[in-house]
Amino acid sequence: MIKIINLNEKTLEEIKINENNCINCKKCYNSCPMMSKYSSSPKELMKKIITDKGVDKNIPYSCSSCEVCNLKCPKDIKIKEMFYDMRKDIFNNDKKNINDIGYNSVKFHQINSFSPVFSKSFSNKSTKKLFFPGCSLSSYSPEIVLKAYEYLKKNIDDLSIAFKCCGKPTLSMGDVDKFKKTGLTPVPVEHVKAPAIAESPVNIACRVVESHPLGSHTMFVAEVLGVTVDDAYLDETGKFDINGTGLIMYSHGEYFALGKKLGKFGYSVQKKKK
Known about the structure:
This protein is α+β, with helices and mostly antiparallel strands. The chain has 3 domains: 97 residues, Fumarate Reductase Iron-sulfur Protein, Chain B, domain 2, CATH 1.10.1060; 64 residues, no CATH class; 89 residues, Electron Transport, Fmn-binding Protein, Chain A (Pnp Oxidase, Chain A, Roll), CATH 2.30.110.10. The protein contains 11 helices and 11 strands. The strands form 5 sheets. Strands 3-5-4 form a 3-stranded mixed β-sheet, with helices on one face. α1 runs antiparallel to α3 and α1 runs antiparallel to α6. It is extended and about 90 Å long. 15% of the residues are buried. The mean pLDDT is 85.
């Protein structure tokens, strides 16, 4: 049975734009070894994904990211990037979704590529030149890598080599380091394994107790286990000044800054001032 995994609103909006711009010339389709397996045309494939509000994970993970589709498209639709966005959504939805296509094995390999037990680095800390062949070629043809290194040393002074994994395998599977990409800082918290965000005025540690699939998204019911608040947003009475935190709002895939105060809730039931 094919499992359809939900995509987020931003990804679906981008697919809608691509589908609308697609003229169905099939130049990308005729050049792609995988697309014909899942649809009769790229336009029909995008329409189905939009209707389902999700995708069979085998579709984006069958893409080899060769970019021939991008080169062939006369409308400059970035199909490779579209499939990659789907991968990120599938991973963020639940990384268990890709365990059966080898994610855990690839992640284990990447982590251990930085262990002295499984890797070697012949480098001088003061060197400014490094030959970084990556892990793939080094794994299946180390002789070629060493021959290339010996050749380069004859022509480049003060050259070192490092046999490490660059991280692209899991990145290409949709595993993006969001902290690194956004410039935010993860910090440990009590009660849960997930990190808090150092730059956030408030962090709420929760444990999920229920989940309810609602079609376009899943509603989670959680138990609050702990709360941390930045002291800079507490007044002299210990009250939290939420309006001073630079609030934003989310609406259909976009974020907006909030403006001036318009009023308050509970006017009809508020206590009268004496």
